[in-house]
Amino acid sequence: MSNKPVMALLFGEATGIGSELVVKALQEKEVRELATWVLIGDERVCRQGEDITGLKLSYQKVESIEEVERNQDTIWMIDLKNLDPSQIQLGSLSLESGRVTGETLEYAMGLAKANKIDGIVYAPLNKEALHRGGYHFQDEIHFFADLLDCKEGFGEINHMDKLWVTRVTSHIPLKDVSALVTKQRVAAIIQFAHDTLSSAGYENPKIVVAALNPHAGDGGLMGMEEIEEIGPAVKEAQQQGLHVSGPFPADTIFRRLDKEAFDCLVGMYHDQAQTGMKLLGFTRGVTISGGLPVVLTTPAHGTAFDIAGQDKADPGAQIAAMKTAIRLVNGKKRVTAHS
To answer: Is-cis flag, bond preceding 205, omega within 30?
Structure first.
């Protein structure tokens, strides 16, 4: 393949299943050939993954990204020499591992900002470990946005097979959700969903919007958000030519997939959107940090401390994250070429 994208591939939280996932994912010839993959992190963490899985990776070590040769059938590694896995405990929260996870992400982001790589795929990280390690952000996307000096227009979006899922609010307490479900915010997320799917190759993607309250508010008996905020935002988006409908009761919205296919679901809060998607395919879901100038993807599941080191980790979501990142990078290049 000519003009392969150059993609950073990070091991994520070293006390979790990240090293296993990366080693397993790169056994797939189809995945290896999608891009010029550059492993970034501590080589000893990679060896940990090899020891756990009994699998080997063939890669070439380099000192800097300038030594990486695009389009070669080679996996490259930049060894940051920043974490000795023998000094941390697999399956446990580690301040030191969290610190190094943040440090490694900062390094990769620096390469992306300098246009030395086309995107970043990282194995699962742990928000608490990252926070204890000194990175005091609400979640990783706010960390990335801070590094990129992005103030607005970004959000998480998940992808599984043909379904995309995003939400108006994310990593906040449930008691704070209602105040943030405003017409302006719902409209912005609908537009965000439309733009993200368009960059992935969809032409006028079909979007459905979930209600906040039981029975979609039951005409105002169980809440007014659907009447005052969500519904008007949907109507505004329709008037702008977007293919969007709703709000629909959240407890049956995933059942709509049986009757009418849609491309993206906009939920109002984290678990409303995530629960259905993870039930549909826990080992295939991908989280995308959308609306940022850098493509960033990761498996939608967590670090799985309970099975770390046991060679039980399913690489399905890691492989999906790598494929999705390439799809988004290629879409971004198409948009740039036509602009």
So the answer is: no
Q: Which two tokens stand for residue 8?
A: 């950073």
Alpha-helical segments (H) within the chain: 18-25, 29-32, 43-53, 95-113, 127-132, 140-147, 177-180, 183-199, 225, 231-239, 256-259, 270-281, 316-338
In the numeric block, the tokens 């940051």 are attached to 80
Pick from 170, 140, 145: nearest CA to 294:
145
CA distances (Å), origin 232, targets 85, 221, 226, 296: 53, 18, 8, 32
pTM: 0.88
Using DSSP, state whether 68 is helix, strand or coil.
Answer: coil
Instruction: Give the single-character DSSP code of 88.
Output: S
Q: What is the mean pLDDT of the chain?
A: 93
Inform me whether the pLDDT recorded for 1 exceeds 80.
no
Q: Using CA atoms, how far apart are residues 146 and 143, in angstroms rounded to an integer?
A: 5
Q: What angle do CA 313, 319, 322 make, to 5 degrees?
A: 135
CA dist., res. 230 & res. 319, Å (int): 35
In the chain, the percentage of residues whose pLDDT exceeds 70 is 97
Question: Which residue type occupies 248?
Answer: F
Domains and CATH numbers, the chain: 1-152+294-300 (3.40.718.10)
Starting at the earlier edge strand, list the strands of the sheet with 59-62. Answer: 59-62, 75-79, 36-41, 6-10, 119-122, 295-299, 286-290, 155-160, 163-167, 264-267, 207-210, 244-248
Asked if the model's pLDDT at residue 145 lies above 50, the reply is: yes
